[in-house]
Design brief:
By secondary structure, the chain is of the alpha/beta class. The protein contains 5 helices and 7 strands, in the order βαβααββαββαβ. Helix 1 packs parallel to helix 3. The longest helix is centred in the N-terminal third of the chain and has 17 residues.
């Protein structure tokens, strides 16, 4: 409001957002074929735009892995079936380009402390998964691996993960999820 009480500015837009969950391919991807992944991701963005959504929260870090080119964490296994295997394309960059072409925002959504589900072997990829690189940072709770938020190095590491995204990609925001301890016994 101006000094006279009249409104100077108007709300530019409301947020009409949707989350695209990538853990276990819940929303996307449904295939490990890169051409199908690109086609289906483009289709999702087109449908969201047609439904008048203007913001996508795209899950880029599910369990200490990446759906973008990271120097800190391995490629997510949802892309190729193998943790750390380069899919030959960059899903985060792709969704940013598709969404921005339609005047939609993309927020990189990542799970912070929850970094591993299940008990399977973790491949020795480059970069190595945080559970292998820093086992002293993790605590197992009910078959899941969680980073310990009480360790200062964990906080520094997560800041670096977030800053890598912000520096390399034209994201419109970052959303942090699983910002908690997994339970009372942790």
């Amino acid at each position: 409001f101006s000094q006279e009480g009249s409104q100077d500015s108007v709300i530019k837009h409301e947020v009409r957002a949707v989350w695209i969950t990538t853990v276990n391919g819940l929303d996307w991807p449904k295939s490990t074929d890169s051409a199908e992944q690109e086609r289906s991701l483009r289709e999702i963005v087109v449908k969201l735009h047609a439904a008048h959504f203007n913001t996508i929260f795209f899950q880029v870090r599910g369990r200490g892995d990446a759906l973008y080119r990271s120097s800190l964490e391995p490629w997510s296994d949802v892309l190729t079936g193998t943790l750390g295997k380069d899919p030959g394309w960059d899903p985060l960059q792709f969704v940013i380009e598709e969404a921005h072409a339609r005047a939609m925002e993309v927020h990189a959504w990542f799970n912070t402390f929850y970094v591993r589900s299940g008990k399977g072997e973790i491949p020795l990829s480059k970069p190595r998964h945080v559970v292998l690189e820093h086992p002293d940072w993790t605590v197992n709770a009910e078959g899941q691996s969680w980073l310990d938020p009480g360790i200062p190095s964990v906080g520094n590491y997560l800041v670096n993960v977030g800053m890598e995204i912000v520096r390399k990609y034209d994201v419109d925001g970052i959303q942090f999820d699983f910002m908690r301890y997994p339970g009372m016994q942790f």
